[in-house]
Amino acid sequence: MLCLFSSFQIRRCQDKGYQPPKTHFVFNTSNSSLMDAIDNSPKFLLTALLSSVMNRDPLSRIPKTSTDKIMERMWNCTHLRDMIVLMKNSSENATACYMQAFMAPISWMILTAQDKNNTDMNALNMDDFDTLLWSAKDALRDLPSSAFKFPPKVELEKMKRLISALWRVHANIPKQNRARVAKWAKEQITENYFNCTMKPPSGSDTEKNKGKPVNRCKPSLQWLNMEAMTMMGPYLSDLSPRDIDSAPKEKLCEFFLSAKFNSTLSRGTRMSPSLGKKWLQKIQQCFNKKEQLAEHIEKLGPLACFWYKVPDLTPELSSKLLPELDGCDHPRIKQLKKKLIETLMSKDNTIQMLYNLGRNVTFSKDQAFALIKRKLGGQKCRNISHEELKELQSMAAGLPQCVLKRLKAADVLNDPETMENIAKKFSKAQKMAMLQRLTESVTASELMEKVPESLRERLSLNFLKNADVSSLGNKTWNKQQALFLAKKVKDLHKLPVLRKYISLLRGVSCAIIDKVAEGDTLTMTEEFSENQQFLDKVAVKCAARRLFAVLEKEREDYFQTITEEELDMIPSLFLIYLPPSRVKDLPDSVCPTFLDKMEEVNMTFLPRAAPSRPKLLQKALDCLTEGEALSTLTVDDTSRLGELSCELSASQLRLMDPDVLKATLEDMALCRYIPADHRSDLIQLIEETYGNLSEFPQETVEALWPLLSLDDSAVSALPNQPWMKDIIDDMRPSLNNVSEAVNEKFFNLTVSESTTARKRRTVRSVSSTTPTAAIIEELGDGNVYWTLGQLNMIPIEVFRATVQVLGTPTGYSVEQLSVLSKKATETFGSVSTLTEEVVQKMGCINRGFSDGDLEKLPFSLDNLDAIKSCGWTEQQMRSMWKGIATYNNLTAQKLGVTEMAALNQFMCGLSPNEISQLNKEAFKDAVGSLNDIRCSYNIAKQLKSLAVTAFGEPNTWTEAKVNELGNMMAGLDATELASLNTAVLSYIRDTTIPLIPAENFAALTEVQLEALGSDNAAKVTTEQLNALSAKQRAAIERAAAGSLVAKTTSGAPSLSAEGISFMKLLLVFLLGFLLL
C-alpha cells in the first residue's frame, strides 16, 4: 500500500515536469544529525518495515501491534523529522516534490498508528506533530478508504490542526471518507468539550475502561456550538440531518449572520437535499418573517439551492439571488429561476439587470432567445460589436446563426475567454456557423490552434485532412478526430512520440498498440493508466491483451507465480482484464497489492458482461477473509472492495454480519451500475433486513433510494407520503436513468398533494384533478401522465402560461398530442396565424398537427434544435422539411454546412432525389454534425449513397470514417456491411447497431461480430439476435464479455527499465530513508 500510495504523489511531480532527483541526494547531506543517524540506526528496522510494506497477509490482517511498533521505530530511530525539515526548506522544487511524495504516506502512517501503550499522535510533542502533519498533508487527497482512519481520541489542539488540514482536501475525497471525517470530528468534539461519547456501545467498553462505566452523551446534547461549527468547516455538509438539531439556535444564528456559514461551506461539495433543507429550516427560525431572510441572500451559499419557497422579492434582491442559484439543478429551483428571470424581463427598467449579470447566470434557450431578440431590437441579423458579444455571453444560446456568420473573426480569436464561454452554450448549428465565419478569415492551422475544445470538436475530418499535427498534441479531440489524426502521426507506437501526442490516445487503434515494442509494453500501459480521460474500452482491451501476452512469454506460469512487486507494476486498469482463469491462479501472497488495486480501480472500463467481474470479486473476498466465512468481514474490509462491492450478490451479502450488511448496502446505493440479474434479489434482501417496503421511514428510503429505484415493484410499494415525493424530486437529477415507475409515482404524489391536505398523509385518486399552472410547472416531463380528459380540462389561461412546459416532454401519445394541439389553436388561433415565437414555445406539441398544417408552421432554423427529439414520424419530417424550406427560402441545393447542421433530424425529411442534390463538399463538413440522426432505412440508404460518393466504397472506410458517419452506417446493405474491414467494427457507434435491419446484420461474419466490441454487442436487438446462427450468437456473447483474442508475438520480451520506473524510484527512496 505504501508504494501504491506514494506512486500517486510521484506522478503529480512528473505531471509538473519535475525530473526525478539524483539518488545521491538521499544519502548526501550536511545535516550532522542525519549523518549520525546513518551510522546509528538499527539495521533490523529496514527488515521490519519492508516486511510490513510487502507483508504476505492482507493489510487489514497485519497484527496491529506489529505495524504500530514499526511506525514508532521509524519516528524514533531514523530522524525522519530532520529529513522533513530539510525537505521543507529545500529550494529545489523538483527534489522537494519527490521527497515529499515518499514522506507524505509515511508521515500519515506514523500520525495515525496506535497501540495499547498509546503510541499515537497524543504521544508526540506539538512540534513533532506539526512537522509530520505538514509532511502528510499532500497525501490526504489520495488516501484509500482503508487508510482513512483516525485514533479514537486525540488531544484537542491536535484535533483542531488535523481537521484544519483535512479542510483543503474536502472536495477531492470520496463521500464515504468525508462522512468518516465528520463522524470522527463529532466524536472528538463531544469527548474533548463535553466529556462524553457518541460512539455506540460495544462489548469491549468495560475492558478498555477497566470496569469504569462509559459516559455516554445524552441525545439532547447541544454539541454543535459556534466553536464546533467553525472547527468542522466544510465537513458541516457531511453531517446527518439529525446532527443539525444539536445546534443551539442562538449560536447557529450568530454563525449564519457572521457570514462564516457561506464562506465555510462554499469550499465544500454539494450536500444531500435532506441535509440542505434541514440547515435552511433551522436558519429560517432565526427570522420572524421570510422576507427578513431574503435580506441575507449573499450569506446562504449552497443553501440557496434548497430555498424552494421564496417570498416576493424586489428586483434588486432577485438579481442578487439569481447568481446564487446558477449551480443548482433541482427542478423546483429551475422553476424559481424561470419566475425570477421572467419578472425581471417583464419591465424595461429591470431587464438591464439581467444583461448586467453577465456570466454569473445561465439562461434557458428560450430565455436567451427572448433576451437576444430584445437586445437586437427587431434586427435579427444585424452586426454586433465584440463588446456587445461579451455582454451577451451568458445568453449566447439565443444568438441567431446569421449574427454569428457576421462576427469579426479577429476580435473573436483574440479573446479566447469570451470565445470559450459562448461556445459552451452553442448548439451544433451555432458552432458550425461560427466556424464557417472563422474559416473565411484564418488558416486551418491557426484555427485549430486557437479555437476552444467545444468548437474544435465540430471540425470535420475533411477539414483536418491537411492539418499539420506537429503542434496539436496538447489539444483535446473527439473520437473520430483522434482516430484520424493518430494515423497522421509517424511512429506513434514509439513511447516518446506517444507521450508527445498523449491527447490522441482515444485514437490509438489496436493496430498501433500491436506495434509497440515488447519491452515498452508495460510503460505503455502506465501511460494509458495515467491518462484515462483520453481512453476507451477498445484501446484498454487491446493493450491488456498485448501486455498479458508479453508477460506470459517471459514466464509461462507468470500469473501463477507472480510476486507482489510484479503485480504492483501492472496498472489496475489493465489488471481487471485478466482472464478469469488467471485471476483464480493469482497466489495468496499478492493479496495486499491486489486489494490495493481493486480499491482504486475504475470498473467502468470493463464490460458489464465480462466474466472476470465475479472472479475479481471472489478473489478480493478470499483475500479479505483468508478462507474464513464472510461473516468475519468488517465494514473496513468491505470498503476495500472499491467498485467491486457493486458486484456483490444477495446470497453473498446474507452471509455478512448484520451491521456490515447494512453498511455495505448503503455503499452499494452509490454504485454506478448494479448487475441486472442481482436487482430483484437485492430488493428481497433489503426487505428482509429493513422490513416491509411500505413501512420504510424517510431516512431508510433516502439511504437506499438509488438501489430501490432500480426495481419497479419496489418503487410502487414504497410509502405514498409527501416526503416520498421530496426524495424522488431531490434525487432524480443524480440518477443515470429514471424509470417509468419512478416518474409515475412522482406524478401521482404531486397531483395528490395539490388536492389533499398534508395532514391526511394519504394519496387519493388523481384522475379527476384539473391541471393547474403550479402542478404543470412542477411536473415538467411528468405531464405525459395526464389523461386525455384532464388535458382537455386545462383552462385556456393556464395553457397559455404553461405551454412552454407542456411542450417539453417527448413521451406524449398520439391521442394526447391531438388534444394538446387542439388546445393550442383554441388558445393562440388557427395554424396559419401562429407566430414563430408561439411555435417555438409549443415544442413537441407541434407533432399533434396534421401533415398539411406542419407545412404551414413558421419554424426558423434557429429553433429546430429544441424539437429534434420529439419523436417525429418519417411523413411528419417530410412535411416539416417542406415548411422549413418555404419559411427560410431553402432548397436542397442551397443547403450549406450550417443549414444541414441546423436541420439535423429533419434531414430525414428530404426525398431521395433531394438528397442526391445536396452539395457534396458541404456534406463532407456537415457529416460529423449529422451522425446522431435516426432516419428510416430507406432514407439512411440514400444518405449512405451520398457518403459513398463523397468518401468512397465502404470497404475502404477507416475507423475514423465509420465513427464520423455514425447512424448513417445503418444505411449499408448486407453486402456492404460484410465488406467492412474487421478493424473498423468496434468504432461503429453503439446508437447505430439497433438501426441496422436484422437481415443485413446477419450478413456479418462471426469474426466481424466478435470484433464489434462490448458496447456495440450490448445494443444488439432481439430481432437481430434471432436472425443469427448459433455460432454468430456465440460471437456476440464473446464480444459482450470483452474477451481477449490471443495474439502471437515473436522475440524474447525484455521489459524496459523505464517500465518499472515508479517501482525503482520508490525503492530508492525506501532504502535510502530507512538506512538513515
Automatic annotation (TrEMBL):
The keyword Signal applies. One of its GO terms (biological process) is cell-matrix adhesion. The keyword S-adenosyl-L-methionine does not apply. It holds the Pfam family Mesothelin. Keywords: Cell adhesion, Glycoprotein, Membrane, Signal. It comes from the Eukaryota. GO terms for cellular component: cell surface; membrane. It is found in: Membrane. Belongs to the mesothelin family. This is Otoancorin. The lineage of its organism: Eukaryota, Metazoa, Chordata, Craniata, Vertebrata.
